[in-house]
Amino acid sequence: xxxxxxxxxxxxxxxxxxxxxxxxxxxxxxxxxxxxxxxxxxxxxxxxxxxxxxxxxxxxxxxxxxxxxxxxxxxxxxxxxxxxxxxxxxxxxxxxxxxxxxxxxxxxxxxxxxxxxxxxxxxxxxxxxxxxxxxxxxxxxxxxxxxxxxxxxxxxxxxxxxxxxxxxxxxxxxxxxxxxxxxxxxxxxxxxxxxxxxxxxxxxxxxxxxxxxxxxxxxxxxxxxxxxxxxxxxxxxxxxxxxxxxxxxxxxxxxxxxxxxxxxxxxxxxxxxxxxxxxxxxxxxxxxxxxxxxxxxxxxxxxxxxxxxxxxxxxxxxxxxxxxxxxxxxxxxxxxxxxxxxxxxxxxxxxxxxxxxxxxxxxxxxxxxxxxxxxxxxxxxxxxxx
Length: 386
Ligand SMILES: Cc1ncc(COP(=O)(O)O)c(C=O)c1O
Description:
By secondary structure, this protein is of the alpha/beta class. The protein has helices at residues 17-20, 39-51, 61-75, 90-100, 117-124, 149-154, 178-190, 219-223, 250-260, 269-281, 283-307, 335-343, 369-384, and strands at 26-27, 84-87, 107-112, 128-133, 135-139, 142-146, 160-166, 194-198, 225-229, 243-247, 312-313, 321-325, 345-346, 348-349, 360-364. It folds into 2 domains: 17-38 and 283-384, Alpha-Beta Complex (Aspartate Aminotransferase, domain 1); 46-281, Type I PLP-dependent aspartate aminotransferase-like (Major domain) (Aspartate Aminotransferase, domain 2, 3-Layer(aba) Sandwich).
């Protein structure tokens, strides 16, 4: 069935964070796409609202079973319903993990540049943030990120208890391959770390790539792994907050649930309906979405290559986020401010993504092609007037 990704409803004045924060600037920032969610999700939501009572939600068994079936089909991962812990958001999950593992002053390791809540969660829970920078290698003029296993291991100290992995990685768009995951798993095993693998973007692999959940590598990594997933990015329902953790080791799961007590609300009843409908009936839409996103990605990287050779970009393997190195672009000051003020285009400021992010911006291409064209034209005009 053909889906229309070329048009988007007008989002100004709809209490959208993306469209409100920067006023009239064209928003190509936060990870929220300008696409209407699949029709079965909307139907499920209409039906839920039509019932008229919006009381506390209780995750239906059907949803948990659907998630388990999906993990088995897509990733060959045998997960049982009791191993799923429903959550009202992934950032909430990151904070719960930091709260659950270790004690005040213990270290939490992350690879930067990274989605900013990874940097904030340890401190929010009185843990110590440790960072290891990913290394960017030029690859045919593009930016390609890898991690350096030696540098990663060197960042671990005697009080490090937790490693938080972003897989696929936001903002660098990498989907880590089995060999890389093995190396990461080995480090966690040798240093006896719990690992939290944020796999929120796992359904958004481009060009037919296949996601491998970290926990599927071996029974040993599975027992020390907390995986976070959600239908929110995949089906563009991030405002509903439906998400979940997969924790196979019973004691680890108990610690996680204990850390949730009293502070984590139940998943709301609309999110439950939307998640179930999305997972059951959204995959045709998802297949076409991925084709559209890959074409948008190609358009962005081709545009940058042809018109702005002084800016280097990643070629994302997953996500709808491109990561642009503007350090040689002759921009005075912060490129996020430059594009906001001179182009009226709102991008994410790379500096917020931690070490290795300064001088970069993140561009969200999860939007109709016409919006992307307008954004790039505005950016081009600003660059021409430097
Ligand atoms: C890696 C990653 N984790 C978590 C989130 C946010 O999750 P939530 O909105 O469910 O808190 C995002 C959103 O961009 C993300 O990129």
